[in-house]
Amino acid sequence: MQTLLITDFLKALPPPLGFNGINVEDKVLNKYIYCLNIKDHNGRIYYPEVMFSIFHSVVGINDERVKECQQVKHILKMMQYKYREGLSKKLDLDSLCGNKYYRTEITASKMLSAKALFPHLWANHLKRKE
Questions:
Q1: How many domains are there within the chain?
Q2: CA 20 to 30 Å from 17, out of 7, 53, 97, 104?
């Protein structure tokens, strides 16, 4: 999905994963998106990264045994194949759950901030992409 649609997606997703039916302020929602730490892929984010980050934020389990279990390894291989055009070939559970620190890469939070802080520059950016 397009990165800029993450707020609408979270507002439509039912609790405990999302905020459907809950009146949530934009600044609270933006802080939550920042905490999810979802990597942006040229204006797009991928469903597995979004959902694994949300699941991890709700459950909060970061156990080494989970990373090493066969089911998780199988799921990661399937995702690497299905999303081979967009997700990293070195996909692991930490990057999928938002546990990797993206210092120089763009995240969904940075993309939303850029649009909010610099709307005129954002419009120019969109025109150049066309």
A1: 1
A2: 104
With b for 16 or more beta-carbon neighbours within 10 A and e for fewer, the 57-79 pattern comes to beeeeeeeeeeeeeeeeeebeeb
Alpha-carbon separation of residue 91 from 31, 39, 72, 80, 114 (angstroms): 25, 12, 12, 7, 27
Domain residues for the domain of 99 are 3-129
Structure tokens of 113? 């901030």
Predicted structure pTM score:
0.68
CB contact at 8 A, 57 and 35:
yes
Nearest residue to 108 via CA among 65, 61, 44, 53: 44
